[in-house]
Design goal:
Layout: H1 15-36, H2 41-68, H3 74-96, H4 102-124, H5 126-131
Helix pairs in contact: 1-2, 1-4, 2-3, 3-4
This protein binds MU-OXO-diiron.
Length: about 140
Amino acid sequence: MALLSWNESLIIDIQSIDFQHKHWVRLINELHEAMLQGRASQAIDQTLINALGYTRLHFATEERLLSENGYPTYNQHKKLHDDFINKILNLNDRLEKGHTVLAMELIGEMRNWLTEHIQTIDRQYVSFLKQKGVA
Ligand code: FEO
């Protein structure tokens, strides 16, 4: 069973962003599945690299959209993105040093953050971007 199911509560109704969020959910489910199946750490590492890479890509896309349109709380939004990346990198460092119990903490952290961030923080910019003609 998937760790996180794509559902209406995650749709913000900006097509390009919904597309990326949906793919993000898929990657986190893949990471969870790899951990559950006890795959070799190399396979898990690669899945985590993919998830982190996509997270960076998504943040860059969203930040560009917000910056180009003069979103008033751009800096705060970007800081939340930066803090999240740093937190995951920190957990991953500890994981690499052999703290395997952290694997589920890491995945849980990603799921909770992603869900809450999309449903609250990302949702705040929707009407602003729509007024700017972003669909
Ligand atoms: Fe969709 Fe602010 O991340």
